């Protein structure tokens, strides 16, 4: 390992391989169709020959001398007894057979045509098109030629019998040629009554065709078969067809000979690389044997060896190959030879691809189809998508997640067990040697310990409980220590499905007891995580470059704004919003102890001047004042809250209004959004953290719970709901009445039935809404469910309506429930009953309970939802995969254009104006408020010249790299690092 | 950047009353794009008496805000856009619902429609056109109807009753006078129109017709029951008027903001034949649209197709309550689909299938064929793209991977000397 230079691939060239190269490259010829001998050693020149590489530990590779693990393996080869066709190229072989001359091998195109196709090919290449299209059209053109333009040899038609058999369809002299000639020479007058043609004497025929008279007589007597030119002449003279179709099977060896004659220039015109891929190489004469390492055998529990599918296939090939050779040497009849040839072809075919249509797949003893070369590459779990595009990594961990409101949103709680496995490399120097020694001294099992040390000579030593003390002494500057994760390290955290970039963010480690990853609840929206058993992955970064990138670009606070809609995606959720709502809606008063308790988990430790005094004469602070403590002093904002009142913030003080979802929530909370954009990500992070903890304190101060009684309304209200529903029923009955009386006027473009359905749906929809309104009127403003719905914390008024008033119409495919029995939904109803209850209207509420029939209809609607979700996830997943694949190369350049990696310009300026979707919300008309800027400048509202300079200039906020360096709670507790800026 | 001269700013000075030459000079000196410079002029113009110094400060402040909002160079905007469209896909419905308030029509929406657009299907599942009318026809219901009859395919069943007389081997059509006059408004008498109808039948079916008033009769040449029924079948398929593809037209009154009339009639058609519809008199070709990208492409060109893709995807998202998706993402998708001058789909048969890199294509779909073809054509993969580099294990040339950083070796003294 030491001294090994990392190899970088500069490019990859594709081509076919010359059989001679195979032989040269091959480590050994394989002739024995067996793997291991009775002692368990690989057989020489067998499929597991040690020259092909080694997989058993302890053995030495006979080619490179390395041991298993470090030897990559070497190819071997099998000399095939007869050439066989490579299945992957059957179509191309067919095309070449059809477009080239049987005799001279040249492409049946004139020089001009060839030139034309060469040009076309060049153009296609320049435009990034598919060269196969040009090849196809060239072949189509060449096929039209009846004779070769170079040697004038007639072109036979080629029939292709899938997968690998080719026939040459030739016109050959019919067996009864003499009879045909004779008939043509003496037309039978009796047959049709009129003469078909004039008869012709042999002498005349001889004159006309230029064939000697005695030869003509020979031909007529059937003693001499006319040669091709003579046959043509005869046909012309007598106007008769002397040929019949003959199917001549082309053996792979014939095809190989044919292809060898195709000149390079002709191949180039077809877009075939004449140097790298001669067409005759598509017919295999030598079969490469993949190295043992590519097809390792596994030892089962009972000590038996189980071979890889490829090995099985190779065994088959060698066996048949052997039999073929023996039979041929023994001079077996042609029929047997051909059978064996076909069998060999079959085995080589399935070795390459075992999913060829029309060929039975080769099967394992158990009946399972074998996984051969093509199958290894294909598909989601194949080499390309499974192993090359998606790689397995070390230093990763996965466990269940759980919430921890005491963490900052930038942090993640990492269980000790995980921290002890994931290590970070420490380069020991004079400055950190004490720390490094302490880690080593702690050993691998105590928490801030170390697992390995690396000496300057490159030797890696495992730190164990036994040697840790001793090893700690030896650590010197220049050593490397693989220490455990400690608080403040940066790691990458991810939850699948990773639908957007906020699904993978960098967090700072906080090592914790127990076995779950802990995260602040405000990062749930970007990950789309909840705590019902979700698991997440963590990756420890392994070099400085990666750690720096993660800190600067990937940390949670850098991802507060979503590029999808340009507003914050991280913010208060659920109880946080209920909390701030309780705190600010009715603006309650708090005593000093209470107010300080609310703010205890924030960086605020002093209260402003009190807002007044309570009846007991104590100083009091209002909820809005307490909330305002979290805002920066120069913040000015005005917006409408989701509960509908106007919120006004002036100079960092919440003057009026309720702070709820539209102010601090995830998905575009106004205050969070403004802080992130106008101040800095760091300021927004501090704010979100503090709002969350203030809100939790507030909600705990007031107490917040939801019980079954919170969804009940007085009996009188229930009666009103019933009335509303009854009157809706009546209206539905009226509609049905008019429909049955044939008096219903249909809506334009709709049938009467459709109109009726739509009207009934409308009526019943309104009935539920009015039930909801009645219920809403009877809820107190402090009803927790109402608070949650109004503030946007969770749930909606519709949910409440369904719980208290009426669940409403159940729908399947956007219609009332119509399926089930013939003309009715359930056996409980009369056929053709159009009433509301017979088609899935649920008049009860969830709280009141559904009748069995209602429950059934409700389950139908619910099932549709489930099915829909299942179908949708797979469809949208594929859509996203395609989108990503198509767009992944696009990148903005320094000149503002958007180009792909090959330099093609896709947009001259991103989004037509070059503004970033992260920084500008899609709903904003103008990102820059020139008017208010002008106002400020003209009115000169600046207290200091610094403020003015800040306003005019571009202020780059200092790069914040850690929770430990910067505003907010002092994580380092007064003794830690300062920001680097 | 070229030096701003006094002459070059004349246009802005002339256009705004309160913009002086000096103000124009300082504003023109910034890196602001045209639209923002114009907005600065407008703002300065709106409040009289802005000094040159203040204007300079305004321009500076606007410039800093502008530079703040620009995309960073080397930003992987493609992936971000793809994610921004793909991610909300999980939140969409699979159902077909009514079209933007037009309760009379069913239109494919949600995820299926989005997939359809990205696939660049030749014909959408539910093709529609939104036909706007010119001033003359837009306000008058009667005149709007004239356009409707030009659009909607009129079949025989809409014109009258068809009956078959098996005894005499005759098909007889009893045309409705009112309908005829309604649909052929330029004609005076119904019999005249009936004549036209009869001619169309003769042309299409190759039979002799007999007409008395508005009744038409015809039958097969030789009495054959089968042929008679066949004739009736064929008769039903004949389009007497309008565009064959347009099966239904709905008229709606809609309010408009940019015209003198508050409301106008807009036609929604089921089925589309965009090129034909634009030819019809009374159709406002500048506002009429269609949801078939390829039809737009054929009649109006790629740029129009690009615009249509943006509009259609945006509408689909808006319909699902996802109107917050930034339109710039849709623009990028639309731009890559139309980048080569034709409409290409996103996927195996379009963008992904025509990538330069063999490995990128092989990693997407139909792996083996791409590899075999690459071998035949002797292709070489230069490993420029993202996917190829992931495969071979090299850093990708996007974002931070696209930056080549070399530590400066120049002595630090040089810098201060420059100052």
Automatic annotation (TrEMBL), chain A:
Cofactor, free-text remark: Binds at least 2 Zn(2+) per subunit.
BP terms from Gene Ontology: DNA-templated transcription
Pfam family, any one: RNA_pol_Rpb1_5
A cellular-component GO term for this protein: cytoplasm
Domain of life of the source: Archaea
Positions contributing to Zn(2+) 1 binding: 61, 64, 71, 74
Molecular-function annotations in GO: DNA binding; DNA-directed RNA polymerase activity; magnesium ion binding; zinc ion binding
Enzyme class: transferase
Stated name of the protein: DNA-directed RNA polymerase subunit Rpo1N
Source species of the chain: Candidatus Halobonum tyrrellensis G22
UniProtKB/TrEMBL annotation, chain B:
Main location: cytoplasm
GO BP term, example: DNA-templated transcription
Molecular function terms from GO: DNA binding; DNA-directed RNA polymerase activity
UniProt keyword annotations, A-Z: Cytoplasm, DNA-binding, DNA-directed RNA polymerase, Nucleotidyltransferase, Transcription, Transferase
Encoding gene per record: rpo1C
Taxonomic path: Archaea, Methanobacteriati, Methanobacteriota, Stenosarchaea group, Halobacteria
Class in the EC hierarchy, top level: transferase
Catalysis performed (reactions): RNA(n) + a ribonucleoside 5'-triphosphate = RNA(n+1) + diphosphate
Record's function text: DNA-dependent RNA polymerase (RNAP) catalyzes the transcription of DNA into RNA using the four ribonucleoside triphosphates as substrates. Forms part of the jaw domain.
Name recorded for this polypeptide: DNA-directed RNA polymerase subunit Rpo1C
Residues annotated as domain RNA polymerase Rpb1: 32-357
Family note: Belongs to the RNA polymerase beta' chain family.
